[in-house]
TrEMBL record:
Keywords: ATP-binding, Nucleotide-binding, Transport. This is ATP-binding cassette domain-containing protein. One of its GO terms (molecular function) is ATP binding. The lineage of its organism: Bacteria, Pseudomonadati, Bacteroidota, Flavobacteriia, Flavobacteriales. SUPFAM superfamilies: P-loop containing nucleoside triphosphate hydrolases. It comes from the Bacteria. Gene3D superfamilies: P-loop containing nucleotide triphosphate hydrolases (3.40.50.300). Residues 3-239 form the ABC transporter domain.
Length: 240
């Protein structure tokens, strides 16, 4: 049996009192790479927030990395977050400390002890993303693409089952976006499921794979890019 790391059925997702998504059915298997698309305001971020415990799943059933979303309490969220790596459009690195200190900060917050062990794991994830030599640089000394790779390294620290990426290439040029995509696809190839929200159709065309569209409060799975009609979704090549 293939292991499902995300398994939601008949869910409803609210932001405050506003019903954003209903009839939410979503399955992701170990090591799968899936694009999440939809117009601005359609609910992509709300869906991702639900998966990492920031918004509530009302109704239906849902599990993420073995956690039951319907029974998830505030106190469980830090444990869920250890199974999920999150990558944002704006990198969200702490600018007043080095790359390694950024990684150590997350490790301390997720229960790691011992400076040596933390620095060793820090170097491991930096070498995985090919930036070991930047460990003691400040974030502002790095390019946007390098900063995003560091944020991916940070997401990998606790060997997550899932990476949730909310428009990770939104601030990057096309070549750098492609490098970030290659990295995320390679991570999926190692067994970590990746769900990536994006407006960048050219990346989907280049890389292919399963595409999920959020539309009119529902989730629709497009099996191949051939099913994709950019004119019906309001998505454009790039929305900057
Ligand atoms: N904290 C909030 N309180 C109330 N409504 C919210 C909140 N956050 C989002 N919404 C509403 O929920 C809907 C979905 O927003 P969401 O941010 O999930 O969309 P999105 O698809 O991620 O958009 P974008 O592509 O612009 O990031 C929108 O109508 C938005 O106004």
């Amino acid at each position: 049996m293939v292991e499902k790391v995300i398994d939601i059925h008949n869910g409803k997702i609210y932001q405050q009192d506003h019903l954003v998504l209903f009839d939410v059915d979503l399955e992701l298997k170990k090591g799968e790479f899936v694009f999440l698309i939809g117009k601005t305001g359609s609910g992509k971020s709300s869906l991702l927030k639900t998966l990492y415990g920031e918004a509530t799943l009302a109704d239906g059933t849902g599990s993420v990395a073995g956690f039951d979303l319907r029974k998830l309490k505030r106190k469980h969220v830090p444990f869920l977050r250890r199974k999920i790596g999150i990558v944002f459009q704006d990198f969200q690195l702490l600018m007043d400390r080095t790359v390694m200190e950024n990684l150590v900060f997350v490790m301390r917050a997720t229960g790691w002890k011992g400076k040596k062990a933390m620095e060793q794991r820090g170097m491991e994830v930096l070498n995985l993303i090919g930036l070991g030599e930047k460990a003691y640089r400040m974030p502002h000394e790095l390019s946007g693409g390098e900063q995003q790779r560091i944020s991916i390294a940070r997401a990998l620290i606790n060997k997550p089952e899932i990476i949730l990426a909310d428009e990770p290439t939104g601030n990057l040029d096309p070549d750098t976006s492609k490098e970030i995509m290659q990295l995320l696809v390679a991570i999926a190839g190692e067994g970590t499921a990746v769900l990536m929200a994006t407006h960048d159709l050219s990346l989907m065309e280049q890389f292919g794979g399963r595409v999920i569209r959020v539309e009119e409060g529902k989730i629709k799975t497009l099996t191949t890019m051939k099913d994709f009609d950019p004119f019906s979704s309001g998505d454009s090549k790039r929305e900057e």
